[in-house]
Amino acid sequence: MEKTIGWNMNNSYVRLPSIFYSDISLNPVRSPKLVLLNEAVATSLGLDIHALQGEEGVEVFAGNMAPEGGIPIAQAYAGHQFGHFNMLGDGRALLYGEQLTPSNERFDIALKGSGRTPYSRGGDGRAALGPMLREYIISEAMFALGIPTSRSLAIVNTGETIIRETELPGAILTRIASSHLRVGTFQYAAQWGTDEELQLLADYALERHFSDYQEDKNRYLYLLQEVIKKQASLIAKWQLVGFIHGVMNTDNMTISGETIDYGPCAFMDTYDPATVFSSIDRQGRYAYGNQPNIGGWNLTRLAEALLPLIHENQEQAIELAQETLQQYPQLYVQNWLKGMRAKLGLFDEEQGDMELMEELLQLMQQHKADYTNTFIALSFDQIEKTVLWKSPAFKNWYQKYLARLAKQPQTIDMSQQLMRQHNPAIIPRNHRVEEALEAAVERGDYSVMNKLVKALAQPFAHTNEQQEYSSLPEPSNQPYRTFCGT
Hints:
It contains 16 helices and 13 strands. Strands 1, 3, 7, 8, 9, 10 and 11 form a 7-stranded antiparallel β-sheet that branches. It has a two-stranded antiparallel sheet with strand order 2-4. Strands 5-6 form a two-stranded antiparallel ribbon. The mean pLDDT is 96. It is an alpha+beta fold.
């Protein structure tokens, strides 16, 4: 008896007004080949991993046929791209609908690189294999690090060539997410929809992500508050591991608080708040050190979009929104301090903790210390392995740090155990990611990538096998650059 894949699709998004999406026809590809199936994700969705590898599964992943119960649409949204407001939408993506899992969770099933839509703006709607594999590697690393994220279910090679700077092998990625509702979705509704359509969108977001709101309260102010909490927590987690998103446009910031759109993202090696990898971020708007403030800027755009719902009197709506937005900096700092205390083995709170942390970061920047490896060295009491060790200023800091640890009732061993649970042994270092992508794209060798992803799956294990991934790249006169892949 032939096994069924296990699709259990629902389509709540299409019950919104039609301004929020366009029905689309599929753009079939000639000879798709499955090159990656994330078996853990497939199983969590209630899908049969063997049936998925058959012809029907590959056809769904290639955008040649919709899954049973799926309705292919392209979502409409707007966004501030590098500070400039634009009408956008899914230009190379489609949404099949939502898979209801055996545990009754709901996840969007979307394709990336699936061809032209009404929102393609002159693009071909396709994606290259390299950027899709990059999204898989980084999103799996983020998931393992405990950072909310979209994930990759599958990647197919389309068997077609796409043209960017050169000819590249085409690919389509199947992405899952709690939803694809963005700050930009609300901006779109506020700009081009009616107040009623904006309200329907907000009610939908509440029901999908924040259903425990109280009817007697201002539900739309509550929505803003909850998104602020999610984003403050998310961006603090980014900062704590040295992750740089690279393109924090409002259309890439989710209401659910999940990381989405792994285009020009990368992880920082040498600690420097000015670090930028994205080739299109020429002014450093989305540099590592700017990410917390940009998060607040994006949330302000969400608040502006929600003003008609927060209060019928605009002045009162603005006042309420501003009061709520003032929570963000404090929430972000609270999240960051909590995470940084764990990275330094601090179980309790002392007034001078922030100064202690900032002094360490300043020393790391001054001496061009590796961010991840410095915390690993502290976790294992191997500080002589860092470039900081010869610095008198660092030795002075270290004595203050030891004195701070001594104030706690917990032992040094307990502190180091806490640190090892919060300082990853491994991150997807840029040269290792490039090495994996080159082997896969240029030679069809996926073993390098699979080995890397396996090591990334348990970042706090601190195994001997992970040590090879902690080595730094060879010095180069050329700064590392990442690209959107569009």
